[in-house]
Each structure stands twice: as structure tokens, then as C-alpha cells.
Description:
By secondary structure, this protein is of the alpha/beta class. It folds into two domains: 172 residues, 3-Layer(aba) Sandwich (Rossmann fold), CATH 3.40.50; 104 residues, 6-phosphogluconate dehydrogenase C-terminal like domain (6-phosphogluconate dehydrogenase C-terminal fold, Orthogonal Bundle), CATH 1.10.3660. Helices cover 51% and strands 13% of the residues.
Amino acid sequence: MVVGIIGLGLIGGSMAIDLKRRGFADRILGVENEFVNAEAALRMGLCDEIVPFGDCVRKADIVVIAVPVGTAVKMLPEVLDIFKEEGREDKIVIDTCSTKSQIVRSVHYHPLRGRFVATHPMAGTEYSGPWAAMPNLFDGRACIFANSEESDPQAVKVVEELYDVLNMRPIYMNADNHDVHTAYVSHISHVTSFALALTVLEKEQDEKHIFDLASGGFSSTVRLAKSSSDMWVPILTQNRDNVLKVIDTYLDKMKDFREAIASYDGKRIEELIHEANRIKKILR
Length: 284
């Protein structure tokens, strides 16, 4: 099995490590446009060879698109076009993007649509680049399969085996529903973390010791603000409508807290906190 990974950052690089060492891939081909990243990926052993995009698509049995979703939407039809030109209807391409609606629509009418399996491995950190890649990143996490009924059953089976090797559990979901859910559980977390970081940085201009007082709670809350804009700008713009709805709900909840605090209403503050504490039944 030859696996080609386009984008050897956190997700692509971590997949490369475990697919190779766990025996799923005999050979890993990598595509990296930035010279420094390409050199780092080779030196770290994330791939066996760095090759041009076209060579990767032609030589690999499975192509993994692990680049920001804005780029992935343009790249996916090109991959399927090469499959078609080569007469290779046995190859498979998957993506790992955090939004699914636009990417599945981009190839809905492609003659080789069935060779594409839309996936979203629900794992990651705030870091990016080849240096962020790590073994065991995906262990025990969920992987979303979006609109899998539009993919060839054989292709879905092979991709299920790939994610099984990564110790991920599959969840099957409509692409539009996926984007709604990720807006609530992932995208809003990043937006609020960015906003909090901006708030504190603005205050820090006047009070130089504010970060000296930062505790573990602050660090964990603002951790996502370190995330790359290259990744998050296309995610937030592609999932705009869902993210806006979540932001509006979030602002309503912030307003509830503000009004209770402003009026010294300890009972209402307690009610809001107790209501929020119900999350403990879901997240342990």
C-alpha cells in the first residue's frame, strides 16, 4: 500500500507516522510546497519521499488531502481528474477537513465521485507544521464519515480500515449536519479563544504584569488562540452561517451573565453556573 499525503502538518504528519509504523502503509509519499517544511518532514521521517502533487496522485493507492479546507476544495476535483485521466478507478482520495458541506458539493457530479470518501478525524492540537506531528494523536477519538452513501462501498471499507488502524471510531453523518455540530463543539471554541486573547492583550498594554498572574485556567482557556489563521480563516468563512448562529447564542448567554453580575444577583449567577455544570454529565 502506497499512501500519498498532501500536507504533512499536524494531521497529515501524525497520520503518516502511525499508518507506517502500524503496517497499513508500506510507503508514504509526501507533498509539501514550502521547502523548510518539506525538509523537516523528510528529516523527521514523516515520509519516504517528497514528490510533486501530480506524481503523488499518480503513484499512491490512497491520497490523503490534509491541507486547509479552502485549498482542499480546489484540490479535490484535480485529484479525481487525474484518476480519470489515468483510468484508475481503483484509487481512493480522502480529506481531513473540519467543514464538509462545501467539499462534498465540489465533486458531487464528478464521474469518479465514488472514489472520494469525506472524513473528519476529530483530533488535533493548537500547533501546526511538521514539528507538530506526533504518534497516537488519533487513538480513541471519533472520525466523521460524511455522505458516505455517495462513495463506493469498497472505498468506504478501505478507509474504515485505515481509521481502524489509527484506533478511531467511525461516526456516519450528513455533511450539513456535521457542519452544524462542529460549529457548536469546535468552531465556537476557537472564536471565543481568539476573542479572549485579544481582550487580554489589549488590557496587557496598560498592565504589564497581567500575564504574571495567569493561571492554568487561563492557559487552558486561551490555548486555542495559538491556532493558525491559515487553517481557521477558511473554516470560519465556509461554515459562516452555522458559526454566526452559535456566536449569537453565545452572546445571549454572555448577556445573561452580564446582567446578573451587574445587578449583584448572586442567585441568578448561581443558577447559570449550575445550569452550565450539567456539561459534566457529557464531558468527564
